[in-house]
Write a structure and sequence with these properties.
By secondary structure, this protein is an alpha+beta fold. It is 36% helix and 18% strand. It has one domain (2-212). It has helices at 2-17, 29-34, 63-75, 82-104, 126-142, 160-163; strands at residues 21-22, 44-49, 55-60, 149-157, 170-177, 183-187, 198-201.
Length: 218
């Protein structure tokens, strides 16, 4: 709990100093260093839970799992466009959440955040979700499953002072479209384990409050 509060205080201050949006200029791996967890190694990810990556569990995606993910992405009827690739990514992230959830215990993860959830290894806050989703996106990237995008560095928005808890600092994973350089938030936090994440332009993500977050990508 203390670690979670300390982390929140540090990044809360960063948000205020950066106009309530915390963007990194460094590589994706900086995010993992900030939250004292490991980026994917080969096809093994470190799944965060218990809020603020307090609980960390390694999960490997073997050849069988990578083949299953590839099959899921191919099932999405699509033209060869960035938009349709983002749709396929949403279904892939859903599959990966379900797979890791059965191993880690986060199948029981409830949507959103609960004040009593810190320290519960079955629950995930936005830091856990953003970190895990970034790891999953990196697995897709390194297995040649991303053609129109690359994995971006997670960022957060928030404005506690002016809007209270409704504008609490909120983190998201990021995809960057290769051609346009447009960033897209890939956000699973508001939904239960295994639901498709919302994938929406980063500049249109989390504009008003937590209740106004985008719907899952269909």
């Amino acid at each position: 709990m203390q670690r979670s509060l300390t982390t929140l205080a540090v990044f809360g201050l960063a948000l205020l100093l950066a106009g309530c949006t915390y963007n990194r200029n460094g590589p994706v791996t900086d995010h993992f260093a900030d939250f004292k967890t490991a980026p994917p190694r080969h096809n093994t990810v470190t799944v965060c839970s218990a809020y603020g990556c307090q609980k960390q569990t390694k999960v490997r995606f073997g050849k069988k799992q990578i083949a299953a993910i590839r099959k899921v992405m191919k099932k999405i009827p699509r033209k060869d466009t960035p938009y349709e690739e983002r749709r396929a990514v949403a279904y892939a992230i859903s599959w990966m959440e379900i797979y890791t959830g059965k191993i880690v215990g986060t199948s029981a993860d409830r949507p959103g955040m609960e004040y009593g959830g810190s320290g519960d290894p079955t629950q995930q806050d936005c830091v856990d979700e953003a970190t895990n989703t970034t790891s999953y996106l990196m697995i897709l990237e390194r297995n040649g499953l991303l053609k129109h995008h690359k994995v971006g560095t997670p960022f957060s928005k928030g404005n506690v002072i002016f809007r209270g808890v409704a504008k609490w600092p909120h983190w998201t994973a990021i995809l960057v479209e290769n051609k346009t350089k447009q960033r897209y938030a890939v956000d699973s936090w508001k939904y239960g384990n295994g639901e498709n994440p919302a994938i929406v332009r980063a500049d249109k993500w989390y504009i008003k409050d937590l209740e106004g977050l985008a719907k899952p990508t269909a």
